[in-house]
Recover the amino acids of this structure.
């Protein structure tokens, strides 16, 4: 599926950009399916916001129980101080996650078609497992910033094995919050780990206090259909969406089943 030179590039940089990986039919099916699921979704009285402020969602059972469910999370700016939507729900959703690749027939079909198990093996996994999926919207004008982070912070294994597969369902550019990454940063230690607390809720363990290397982030302005593969330790970021257009993306995170998946990881699933 990918060449030896692409594998070397991934190992060197911590990411790989592959254009035209997902065809227009697959993209349209996912976009249409997400619209259908949102239309059917009835927002609960307590609306869960997805934000990079982990302390806000630390004790939210709706979020913590989403590992083997299909759940809906709102943009922070779509909710007022009283918990009411400030915009229609169709443009209020931050993301749908985290098990639609297993539970929904359309997402399951396309996940299989993409052949990511084989790609994960090419990148060194022995026994790949698709652990979580997300449909991310980055809504026009209110799509929030996602701070610099490493995916292995949240999907930790021993040894670390997480790989992210990020698909642009729409064009992504600077204005609507495209991905940015610290090239080669996957060679730095994992900074922290997010996990369930023995006292209830969640907490971070600080693993490395050294600051990130001081160099500019590479910016990935990509066309729809592009795949960006992200090493689990690669620091990456996306700015807020200041434009009038959305930036939809579909992501899957894989881990190696030959690595130990701790019981105190926040994401737990009954599906293998």
């Amino acid at each position: 599926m990918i060449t030896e030179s692409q594998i070397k590039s991934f190992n060197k940089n911590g990411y790989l950009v592959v254009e035209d990986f997902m065809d227009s039919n697959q993209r349209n099916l996912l976009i249409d399916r997400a619209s259908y699921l949102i239309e059917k979704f009835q927002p609960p009285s307590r609306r869960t916001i997805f934000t990079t402020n982990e302390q806000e969602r630390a004790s939210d059972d709706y979020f913590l129980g989403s590992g083997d469910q299909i759940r809906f999370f709102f943009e922070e700016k779509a909710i007022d101080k009283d918990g009411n939507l400030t915009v229609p729900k169709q443009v209020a959703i931050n993301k749908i996650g985290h098990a639609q690749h297993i539970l929904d027939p359309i997402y399951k079909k396309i996940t299989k078609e993409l052949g990511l198990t084989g790609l994960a093996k090419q990148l060194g996994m022995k026994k790949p497992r698709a652990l979580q999926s997300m449909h991310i919207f980055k809504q026009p004008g209110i799509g929030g910033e996602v701070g610099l982070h490493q995916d292995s912070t949240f999907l930790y294994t021993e040894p670390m094995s997480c790989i992210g597969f990020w698909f642009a369902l729409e064009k992504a550019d600077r204005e609507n919050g495209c991905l940015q990454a610290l090239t080669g940063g996957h060679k730095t230690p994992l900074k922290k780990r997010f996990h369930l607390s023995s006292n209830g809720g969640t907490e971070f363990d600080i693993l490395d206090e050294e600051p990130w290397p001081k160099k500019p982030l590479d910016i990935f302005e990509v066309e729809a259909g592009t795949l960006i593969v992200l090493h689990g330790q690669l620091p990456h970021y996306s700015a807020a969406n200041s434009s009038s257009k959305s930036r939809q993306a579909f992501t899957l995170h894989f881990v190696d089943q030959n690595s130990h998946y701790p019981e105190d990881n926040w994401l737990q699933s009954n599906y293998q």
Notes: Helices lie at 4-13, 24-40, 54-57, 61-64, 100-103, 105-114, 116-122.
